[in-house]
Write a structure and sequence with these properties.
disordered C terminus, single chain, 2 domains, mainly alpha, 72% helix, sugar transport, MetI-like fold
């Protein structure tokens, strides 16, 4: 009994320490965002500002057309996440539930694409998008997501492999086709994996800097990460405004995680089998 209490205290102590370590950068960004320029220049830095300047957020937001950047980021993120999650689920369903010649070889080739760095692909992709006339549009940031992602396909495929064949056999006997089986049976069962993939890919797209930097040249189509970089000049950096926008940018990802975590944790496939 004593050992279990000690173990529980030790576990919670470690979790608290790790939580503080992970939350400290966000805390530091926030206090930097609400400091005055004079207090920001102090050394050693202060952990708690003497006066909180909430107007720094409005000042930073209005210094650039961040409303337009926000709209662009929302459009790109929403459309890309929808395309990535659905297409990856569809491809994963094909690899997991259909036996065909070359299945394992094709899946291995798919996984091998994860070892190719984006730096190697950027020039061929740039030439390809230039040929399509997609440069300086949001299409290069959205359309590729509709062809799935190797990691997300792997995640969903491994889950689908654990589901008994009884599910689709019963549905086929009832006269359902494979599209109906996928949309009505497997997509609901894939909900935790879909939510997890959506959150993970949302973070990737929402914080993507290199993609918009390479493919977009017009300021009207900039996304938030590009707008964030405008606070950095050749000789000086407006750290107060930089951190203010950084704090604002983290809010959607935090909200998405807290909304989706219950779906990720409630991964109960056995409930469908019992019925």
């Amino acid at each position: 009994m004593v050992k279990s209490k000690v173990s529980k205290v030790a576990t919670y102590s470690i979790l608290v320490i790790l939580s503080i370590a992970f939350l400290f950068p966000l805390f530091w960004a926030f206090i930097t965002a609400v400091k005055s320029p004079g207090e920001l220049a102090k050394y050693p830095p202060t952990f708690f500002p003497k006066e909180i300047h909430w107007e720094n957020f409005a000042k930073a937001w209005n210094s650039q057309p961040f409303t337009k950047y926000l709209i662009n980021s929302v459009i790109v993120t929403v459309l890309a996440v929808i395309g990535m999650t659905f297409s990856s689920a569809l491809v994963a369903y094909g690899f997991a539930r259909f036996e065909f010649k070359g299945n394992k070889i094709m899946f291995t080739l798919l996984l091998s694409t994860m070892m190719i760095p984006w730096d190697v692909l950027v020039i061929p992709l740039y030439m390809q998008y230039n040929f399509f006339g997609w440069l300086n549009t949001l299409k290069p940031l959205i359309v590729p997501a509709y062809f799935g992602g190797a990691f997300y396909i792997f995640l969903m495929r491994q889950f689908l492999k654990t589901i008994p064949k009884d599910f689709e056999e019963a549905a086929l006997i009832d006269g359902a086709n494979h599209i109906q089986i996928f949309t009505r049976i497997f997509l609901p069962l894939l909900k935790p994996q879909l939510v997890l993939s959506a959150i993970m890919y949302m973070i990737v797209v929402w914080n993507d800097y290199l993609g918009p930097l390479v493919y977009i040249s017009s300021s009207e189509k900039f996304t938030l990460p590009i707008g964030l970089s405008l606070f950095k000049g050749a000789y000086t950096t407006d750290f107060t405004s930089l951190m203010a926008i950084t704090v604002i940018m983290t809010i959607p990802t935090i909200i998405a995680f807290f909304i989706g975590q219950k779906h990720i944790l409630n991964n109960n496939v056995s409930a469908g089998i019992k019925g």
